[in-house]
Amino acid sequence: MSGTANAFPQALSRLQAKPNGHHPGWLKGLRRSAFQWISERGFPTAKDDAWKYTRVAPILEIPFEPAEPGTSRRLSAAAVDQLANDFGGPRLVFVNGYFAAGLSSQKRLPKGAQITSLASALVDEGEALESVLSRPFREHPHAFTALNCALAEDGAFIRVPANTTVEEPIHLVFISDTGAVPHVSHPRSLVLAGAGSRATIVETHVGILGDVYLNNAVTEVVLDEGATVEHYKVQNETETAFHVALLDVRQGRGSKFSTHSVALGASIARHEVKVALEASGAEVVLNGLYMPRGEQHLDNPTTIEHAAPHCTSRELYKGVVDGRGRGVFDGRIVVRPGAMKTDASQTNKNLLLSESAQADTRPRLEIFADDVKCAHGATVGQLDQDAVFYLRSRGIPEDAARGLLTYAFANEMLGLIRVEPLRSHVERLVAWRLGTGGGGMAA
Amino acid sequence: MLNIKNLHAKVEGRDVLRGIDLRVNAGEVHAIMGPNGSGKSTLAQVLAGREAYQVTGEVLYEGKDLLAMPPEERAVAGVFLAFQYPVEIPGVGNLYFLRTALNAVRKQRSLEELDAMDFLALAKERMKLVEMDQSFMNRSVNEGFSGGEKKRNEIFQMAILEPKLAILDETDSGLDIDALRIVASGVNALRAKDRAMVVITHYQRLLEYIVPDRVHVLANGRIVKSGDNDLALELEKKGYAGFELHAAGHVPAAVGATP
Predict the structure, then answer these.
(1) Does the pLDDT value for residue B246 go beyond 60?
(2) Chain-wide mean pLDDT for chain A?
(3) Ranges under pLDDT 50 in chain A
């Protein structure tokens, strides 16, 4: 498994010959050009500014095989519950990037709403999806989006018609279950929110303890005028795995999008969020909590593009870094010419729990318009020793005191999760990670 | 209960405590008075286990070596410090914090841990001692509390944790007369024959409400005079000036003999 420095690219080059006969012509073309892109341009290096903080080399050393359908050790619904929880709404489960109908439940949906697998949507919709599906790769080409574009087999397809509300959270579960041979999967999801529609989407990414895999996911969300989408992502991959993901969002006039990312797992993870505010009055909220420990490397690049006037963006990311872990926040806000009355704020706070923990924070504001309000702030600090002593002086052991204060730091982010069963699920994950009781601690 | 012998403490190369001897028995209330910078708060912090100081000498608490115990061990053994400046802890609820602390103490005393409901009942009862509003329980520890509310919260914590040795560090500072009365009556209600208290204060005013059995004057890191409550009244009239000079060894004591 410890291959050469380019074991993965070599494994990829063997794929080219593989036919993908079941795809429509336009998709074959798109996949070919994406594959072409990567064979010509290759993987990013440290010289690539967008990848400044994340070394790709450890990923390229592993000759990942493409995941096949049916490689699963036949996960039961109970096992999925345990790995990813059940939040009561419709749940689509993908194993190694392939839809697992038997583990999924569509439940009752409002008229016209589609919650299904992308593969089946492609059969029904065909060419209508070409322009959206090609966009993330064409707009932000880098090796991993190109790979996803070239090799994705399935993912979630969600379409909420105009003025329709899906009340219950739609849960998308991406499970990697690869066994002894390292596998790569490329889940590709698409969310189309019609004008005035409302939906809540929860993505969970998990794996099986000890497996080595690469989960290379792309999720695209398109909000028409006045749509509201609340998106959550729990990245709890197994700590021997790799996670590279892009969340690509486009917002229409007066639409509201929020995403909350909780990054706990993976050896190396890079969860990129790109939001384009394309028409006036759009609002976006990006929240993130990342908690690397051990040797984990968790990178959170975000780009918010204010391309239209009167748009609002709010961004709050918090890092809790322990051991020799490294947490990265690389937040870019671009205000295009003419995007007057832009109101943007960005905050990143980091707590270092050990001497060798590392946090990198890079706020980047690129403002090309007048009459805008843009604020940003970043901090990197340690636990307040006065607070640790105060708790200890009341009989709370040092470890527990530190855990309590760390939980309190993270808790601000947990409090922002509005889906109650998801919030308690994440509270448990975080409390378990910090070795604190957690429950009921918040003020 | 508490026996301090030749206690020295240094911080950043500066001698703050320079040979303290003090004996406090169960049931007694001792006042330690002194001017700013005399080492009063350092004494309180050293007894609670603050690690910032280099400490030499001996402190026996119920016959055990107190200085060898980490702060949390001292707390569960029954030592309590009411802080001069209680720390604000955003994100940690007062109720959760106190229940965690009480259960740590109860575990040490081989008592069953209290669940949230039982604890709430106890908290409601003890809050009355310091006339605290129940809404305090649902706020973060000391966050956004006024000076007086923070001091009341300290005494409330003491009422919950039921220590054997309570050290009150300038509990009167920053209190108006009403808050002072409330805090003092809370403290008086907790006086007991098996509980000792060390009340540290700059002003005699507090001692009108909490009448001590013994009064000690601390100056330049040493106890320079001890007496009964009359000593506090004398200090109120004459001030600390003579003591400081005396402790520095320049001129004879202005008041009374050497300790």
Answers:
(1) no
(2) 91
(3) 1-2, 17, 438-439, 443
Radius of gyration of chain A (CA): 21
Confidence check: pLDDT of B33 > 50? yes
Instruction: Provide the percentage of residues in chain A whose pLDDT is more than 90.
Output: 72
Verify whether the Cβ–Cβ distance B91 to A412 is below 8 Å: yes
Query: Which among B49, B91, B101 has CB closest to A443?
Result: B91
Domain positions in chain B: 2-248
Give Cα A400 to chain centroid, integer Å.
Answer: 31
Q: What integer is the mean pLDDT of B41-51?
A: 95
Please give, one letter per residue, the 3-state secondary structure of A294-309: CCCEEEEEEEEEECCC
Outline where B111-171 has alpha helix (H): 116-127, 147-161
Distance, in angstroms, between B69 CA and closest chain A CA? 11
B58 neighbors B160 (Cβ within 8 angstroms): no
* Averaged pLDDT score across all residues of chain B: 89
Range B2-248 classified under CATH 3.40.50.300: yes
Neighbours of A157 (CB within 10 A): 24
| Number of Cα atoms under 13 Å in the Cβ half of residue A211 | 25
- Hey, is the C-beta of B70 within 8 angstroms of any chain A C-beta? yes
pLDDT score recorded for residue A17: 47
What is the rounded radius of gyration, in angstroms, for the C-alpha atoms of chain B? 18
Judging by DSSP bridges, how do beta strands B222-227 and A114-117 pair with one another?
unpaired
Cα–Cα distance for residue pair A133/A278, rounded to 1 Å = 18
ipTM computed for the complex: 0.93
Report d(CA B105, CA A436) in Å as an integer. 18
What tokens does B52 get? 């910032």
Residues A65, A68, A70, A75, CA torsion sign: positive
Chain A residue numbers touching B104 (CB-CB < 8 A): 394-397
Residue B87 to residue A386, Cβ atoms within 8 A: yes
Q: In this predicted structure, what is the pLDDT of residue A183? A: 93
- B248 has a chain A CB within 8 A of its CB: no
Residue corresponding to tokens 């994440």 = A426
> Which phi and psi angles does A235 have, rounded to 5°?
-100, 100
Q: Whole-prediction pTM value?
A: 0.88
Strand order from edge to edge, sheet including B222-227: B79-82, B165-169, B196-201, B29-33, B214-219, B222-227
Query: Could you state, in order of their start, the residue ranges of all structural domains in chain A?
Result: 7-279, 389-443
| Interface test with chain B among A320, A393, A404, A434, by most B beta carbons within 10 Å | A393
Q: Confirm if A355 and A325 have CB atoms less than 8 A apart.
A: no
Instruction: Give the count of alpha carbons within 13 A of A253, CB side only.
Output: 3
Of B80, B96, B139, the CB nearest to A440: B96
B72 part of contact set with chain A, CB < 8 Å: yes
Pinpoint the alpha helices (H) of A140-207.
Answer: 143-151
Cβ atoms of residues A43 and A143 within 8 Å: yes
